[in-house]
């Protein structure tokens, strides 16, 4: 096995690490949104914190690769890496939206509870 194929294998592993961590984050975000639907806002926030850790791990792998290229490492185009970046970007957007939804529904729930007390 030559160095070039080893690098490609390493690059594929990094891509899969990004995809798997981002995918795990997506599942955890879904669990968090299920908590929101049940008005379990603290549990939802915990899920989003857990998901953020997965996103951070995926982002670190991506950043390491991009910084390597910036240092002059030759990195050939990889459809798998492009897919990994796209997946990560999408999940980051989902996390941001879910984070806003938790705050929004928690506020609405609080207002509704106050109205019901009257």
Automatic annotation (TrEMBL):
One of its GO terms (biological process) is phosphoenolpyruvate-dependent sugar phosphotransferase system. One of its GO terms (molecular function) is transferase activity. Binds 1 Mg(2+) ion per trimer. CDD domains: PTS_IIA_lac. Its cofactor is Mg(2+). The keyword Transferase applies. The modification Phosphohistidine is found at residue 83. The active site is at 83 (tele-phosphohistidine intermediate). This is PTS system cellobiose-specific IIA component. It comes from Scopulibacillus darangshiensis.
């Amino acid at each position: 096995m030559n160095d070039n194929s080893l690098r490609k294998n390493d690059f594929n592993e990094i891509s899969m690490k990004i995809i798997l961590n981002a995918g795990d984050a997506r599942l955890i975000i879904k669990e968090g949104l299920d908590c929101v639907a049940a008005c379990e806002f603290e549990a939802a926030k915990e899920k989003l914190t857990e998901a953020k850790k997965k996103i951070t791990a995926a982002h670190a792998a991506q950043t390491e690769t991009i910084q390597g290229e910036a240092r002059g490492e030759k990195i050939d185009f990889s459809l798998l890496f492009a897919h990994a970046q796209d997946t990560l970007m999408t999940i980051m957007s989902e996390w941001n939206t879910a984070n806003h939804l938790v705050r929004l529904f928690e506020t609405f729930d609080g207002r509704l509870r106050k109205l019901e007390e009257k």
